[in-house]
Write a structure and sequence with these properties.
34% helix, 3-stranded antiparallel sheet
Length: 59
């Protein structure tokens, strides 16, 4: 999955970007306070993308 597609799905679910790190970005779900690190690569493997969406309740 492309990183921009994952970020779009996170924003639609009510998540926002907390900060950018060297190799990861921290995203927070404003509804439940869940935090998840998203790698700063252009292509994110499908199992990892699904795990990020599930942990942020964005699926």
């Amino acid at each position: 999955m492309k990183r921009r597609d994952l970020e779009r799905r996170l924003r639609i679910a009510g998540c926002y970007l907390k900060r950018e790190g060297g190799s990861h970005s921290l995203w927070i779900n404003s509804k439940n306070g869940a935090i998840e690190a998203v790698p700063r690569r252009t292509e994110i493997k499908e199992p990892l993308a699904k795990k990020i969406l599930k942990n942020l309740n964005a699926d």
